[in-house]
């Protein structure tokens, strides 16, 4: 057709990472360096209706966070991306379908640990986009004496709840670590967070 086309993006993948739903791709082979990308998505509720994503129009990066544009976190969606340069465009390349609720991948929470008197107060903060705070994210907490394999477990705490542990009988260096958990069709967990260690009841 004599119409010069840009190489289409490659490895177009819709994936969940750290509570987000992200479309990622790599430049087509032989793409000019200043090429930009435009993304759209389609939900199984409205097949054939490709919706624009304002924050992923003519962008230089090779990923697009779709978490908070998804109209329904319980419906499968897919996304597509094309390369654009001036008046040149590549063909669209489509991802596979994913559903946030089923396919979400978790990240470990970040612990904040506060010791007062003989109590340890533990809060977990989650790297969540506002639009997915509605789900009942939970966390499991482990407490153990540094160097020991014997872990005390506090399971199924709601995201915003503080866990308070009586440390009266504990002395020495104790460590805490947590993982996010989520009940969809089956139970999911993140990895455990990096341990946070505190010194308890040191006789001065």
Automatic annotation (TrEMBL):
<dbReference type="InterPro" id="IPR003961">
    <property type="entry name" value="FN3_dom"/>
</dbReference>
<dbReference type="GO" id="GO:0004896">
    <property type="term" value="F:cytokine receptor activity"/>
</dbReference>
<dbReference type="InterPro" id="IPR015373">
    <property type="entry name" value="Interferon/interleukin_rcp_dom"/>
</dbReference>
<dbReference type="Pfam" id="PF09294">
    <property type="entry name" value="Interfer-bind"/>
</dbReference>
<dbReference type="InterPro" id="IPR013783">
    <property type="entry name" value="Ig-like_fold"/>
</dbReference>
<dbReference type="InterPro" id="IPR050650">
    <property type="entry name" value="Type-II_Cytokine-TF_Rcpt"/>
</dbReference>
<protein>
    <submittedName>
        <fullName>INLR1 protein</fullName>
    </submittedName>
</protein>
<dbReference type="GO" id="GO:0005886">
    <property type="term" value="C:plasma membrane"/>
</dbReference>
<dbReference type="Pfam" id="PF01108">
    <property type="entry name" value="Tissue_fac"/>
</dbReference>
<dbReference type="InterPro" id="IPR036116">
    <property type="entry name" value="FN3_sf"/>
</dbReference>
<feature type="domain" description="Fibronectin type-III">
    <location>
        <begin position="8"/>
        <end position="105"/>
    </location>
</feature>
